[in-house]
Amino acid sequence: MRTTILLIFVCLTGKSFSQEFLNLGFEFELRGSETPKKWWYTTSSGYIFKWDGNEKHESNRSLKIISNNPKENQSGVFTASFPVAYAIGRKIELRGHVKTESINNGYAGLWWKVDGQDGVLAFDNMENNGLKGTNEWQEVSLMMSVDEKAKEITFGGLLLGNGVAWFDNFKILIDGKTFNDLQPRSTELTTDELAWLKKNVYPLSTYDPSTKSDVDLEVFGSLIGDAQVVALGEVTHGSSEIFQMKHRLLRYLAEKKDFEIFSMEANMPEAYKLNDYTMHGKGNPTELIKGMHFWTWSTQEVLNMVKWMKLHNATTQKIQFTGFDIQYYNLSVEELEKAFKDHNTILEDLTSIKRILDKTSAKHQGSRMGAVSQDDKDTIVEKLEHVRNVIEKLGLTKDRTAWLYQNIRVIEQYIDKTVFSWDKFMAENLLWIKSQNQDSKIAIWAHNAHVQRTMHGMGNYLSDSLTNDYVAVGFAFSRGTYTAMGENGLTTYQAQVPYNGTFEKFFESIDVPIFIIDLRRIKEEKPMHAKWLLEKMDFRQVGSMKMKSEFYETDISGDYDLILYINNSSGSKLLD
């Protein structure tokens, strides 16, 4: 799970800091799981992580690590993130109570790491003073200075070798002052908070894209203003109502706000193939949608939207279908092969590139995340440079030449793609689309995690480049079902019911089935009864997989400009 860095001003009051919930005592659980909130484990068959309600230093339970025939130099590690802005330029100390039993060939202890833009700035894992053998509860600590260039801080506990270790009652001190570990909210909204919320949302009449009137969407048009890029998120990849609402919003943006580009979280050249249908009626829309590889888009809701786009493009207004993802390389290679069909030397280079990538894909069972070796990368980059250097000699149109260069870039992105670079590359591709259509407005369709303005998401890079020309719309629902991959395969699953302390529980409490809320105005005005909207609380975050725990602590006011809430969800309808 990616960590969140909240940029804040540090304020010292008395002898302590305040502001954050870190779950330093491991008391609060991630609903539906055996994992403490705010913490995650290094997955390893060599260690088992458990809560222990019998053995604890204080409160109700501790976190326990049990060795399970670990391999040499294997370790069990649990991790949390610390908000770096509190610690920059200061001395920071991590304390924790640890108990051990029969630890040999290793030790138990705490660890702390400070990362900068170019790598690790400081690290300590108690390698020389960790606990060995059997020990009753004792407090251990480590301390370090945090460099001004720090970008991220992570910390936690570990067990190396065989044995059992318990961890409890962590504490953090900054320049000797205790950092207060706040408790998450678990109460309902007050009467005043409910009244404020109901008064300050913008109700919408329907999510149905076939509705004749769009009067209710005028408020949406007003809220996005003159933004050039509007990103429409989704909280799962399989909610029919959210998909239909995005279709409805796209129609409004195209017909009333002069948006001329639609761009989807789909592989770039495959999405452009679908544009041949929406603009010129070429091809079978169902097969072209399936050709974008992911079941998430192979739905009746997306097909209905694509068919509408074709009808819309029969008028004087036009809207292009594009994509920006980089999870496949085949069609980019084919695009280049078509251009160089009469150039044997270049074709040999392209055949070699595809052979290397096919081999890597087969070896890693289709993995598309950082699987290409450095030697293979060097070979591919060299051959792509050869291809790039002769494109101008083809004498093609400016647009066709730019498209060939972009397909080379997609292959380069594919071989360099990691969980950290993925969103950056998608943002790069969207900005390329914008550069090719400089006077056009773009509507984006992607997951909430990609459109959000924080956590190094695609929206983070886009908002840095586009500033006020970028609007991020997060989507949410409370109850119902959604389509996902899970233990029963690809089918419809019941959504986890929201609870007090989730944004969705509070949203549904005002009994307005569909609405928009403007988080930018709340951040600016900071109304007394909307304070909870500016805090971190649990928010549903599901991708294409059914998860036991669907809610994670989220700063929605930092992530999104607007939230579009729909009370009930049903599973998207998969194409046959």
UniProtKB/TrEMBL annotation:
It holds the Pfam family Erythro_esteras. This is Erythromycin esterase. It comes from Maribacter sedimenticola. The lineage of its organism: Bacteria, Pseudomonadati, Bacteroidota, Flavobacteriia, Flavobacteriales. SUPFAM superfamilies: EreA/ChaN-like.
